[in-house]
Every structure is written in C-alpha cells, then in structure tokens.
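Example (one chain per record):
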Amino acid sequence: MVSYRAETMEGITREANADRRDFQGIATPPTASAPGTCAIDKPPRHANLPADSIPAERPPPVFAALHRRRERRAAALAAYTSIVERAREPTFYLGWGVPDTLDGRFEVLALHIFLVLNRLKGEANEAAVFAQELFDTMFGDLDSTLREMGAGDLGVGRRVQAMAKGLYGRIAAYERGLGDEAEMAAALRRNLFGTAAASPAQLAAFSDYVRRQVAVLAAQPVTRLIVGAVAFAPLEASG
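Predicted structure:
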C-alpha cells in the first residue's frame, strides 16, 4: 500500500478507540428511570413547535464519520477527474512533443498531481487528509488500469510501487524547480520527454505552463480544493 502522508500507530490507535467508543455509545442499554421520567412517558421533544422550526436530528458519531469519509472520497474523485481531463489534452502530445505512450501519459498526469499536492502542502490537517485521499484515488485508478490491460496481481503490485516511488522523485524535482528555472527545465526534459528530443520552445512552453498553474492554484481557496473543485488556468494561454 502506497502512502503520501505518513501515519503513526498512535494516530491509528486513537481513531480505532474513538470508533469503539462510538459503538459503545450506541449499544449501551438505557438505565432505569423513575415513573414519569422515562422518555416514553413524555411528549415528543419538539411536539409544540411548528414543523418548519424543528431542528434536524444529528446522526450518531459513527455514521457521521462514515458520511465524512464518503464525502472526502467523492471530493477526491472529482478533483482527480479534473486532473485526468487536463492531462489528456492533445496539446501536450501533439503540440508540445510529449510521447503519446503509457509512460508519457503517466508523466503528464504526475505533473498535474504534483501541482495540486504542492498547493495543499503546508495547509491545515484537513488538506493533508484530502491530499492522501487524492493520492489513493490516483493509484487505485492506476491499479485498475493495469489490471484491465492484463497484468497479474504480482505484476500490478510491483508496477504500482514503482510508479509511487517515481512520483515521489518527480515531486521532489519539481519542487526544486519552482525555485530554479534551469532545474525545472531539466526535470521537465528528463521526466516528460525521456529519450525523445525536446526543443527549447517546447520546454519553455511547459515551464511557463507550470508557473501559470502554480499561480492560479495558489489563488484558489483550500476550502474549494478539498471539496474537489480544482480549476486549472486555460491551456491556450500557456503556449
């Protein structure tokens, strides 16, 4: 299992204990009550209130946690879908020269995943949780894609691990490149083009594109990003 955000056993244990307390709260039987004080002896709590003024009942904590988890997964899927749609733009392959191969498409996808993870870096804990969910969504999709292509269980596991390791390296290289133009050009040439030749114009287009996306994502509130609303700058403005 690959992980973007390292988790400690203490954190895992704390979450498990919280879940256990939630279940205990649901399963605890009611205590005996004096006559006339039992809940069934009383009128409904909001019996005298107009229907439209009765507050909504909150779900038990364990169900609320499951609901939040589903919401995070849905948000991560929405963000990942936007990233994939941008990574499939023909301009990257037909105009800017990235090889239109499985490796080339992975590289363009990895670049856009980096852009979003870089924006989330250093934000509050909720953003870190979302970053991990986005990371898991990406590799879950890659796992499914490899299986659809006929790779066996052992082969899929090895390739997913190799892709994760490769993504870590690309994230580190692109982070360094944000502070050094030459470093960014070298990272883009090495990762996106591989053995294919890249012209200075193609590298310049990609470098400009990356910096535009960093600026546009930096201007977007994290509260929007973590609900899956990822918006990139127009591709046409970056050529």
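Caption: The CA atoms of residues 168 and 184 lie 16 Å apart.
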